[in-house]
């Protein structure tokens, strides 16, 4: 039905306003999406913009799966932020209008962008596997970080790094795949 509504609107060159609370439906049907919270627009953009470049923590958590880690901004270098998690581990993320040195930020990273790695380098997080969920086409690996925060990584159904519950693991991501957002 969703695709049929979209096909009819495209064929008749109509603008259709479609209201839904279903994120998948919004991403599927829309050329542009407006995300509201308490009657206020939080972000307007394409599905790719909303999903890949959330304007704030509300949008990041509302649309799709997301890891939101509290951190303190240490420095801003170009369009990247270096931030320290409560455990003392440091990560890199893309800067946003909310980013200020010596202030709290939320580092938002999608689970599909989190890599399980065998290399310990700058920006790599260490943690312990707390759960492994097989979902058919992927594994959802839940990792507890030393500061108590939890992070989810999605991996293909053929895990490259063998692991089990309780095993130590190293995680990283490309800095431009994460965002430093408002610190709420």
Question: Could you give the topology of this structure?
Answer:
Elements: H1 2-11, H2 23-29, E1 33-37, E2 40-45, H3 47-52, H4 57-62, E3 67-77, E4 80-84, E5 90-94, E6 104-109, E7 115-117, E8 125-134, E9 138-144, E10 150-156, E11 168-172, E12 178-181
Antiparallel strand pairs: 1-2, 3-4, 3-6, 4-5, 6-12, 7-11, 8-9, 8-11, 9-10
Write a structural description.
The strands form 3 sheets. A 5-stranded antiparallel sheet has the order 5-4-3-6-12. A 5-stranded antiparallel sheet has the order 7-11-8-9-10, with no helix packed on it. Strands 1-2 form a two-stranded antiparallel ribbon. With 184 residues, it is of the alpha+beta class. Helix content is 16%, strand content 40%. A hairpin with a 3-residue loop joins strand 8 and strand 9. The chain has a domain of 64 residues.
Which terms would index this structure?
5-stranded antiparallel β-sheet; 4 helices; 184 residues; alpha+beta; globular
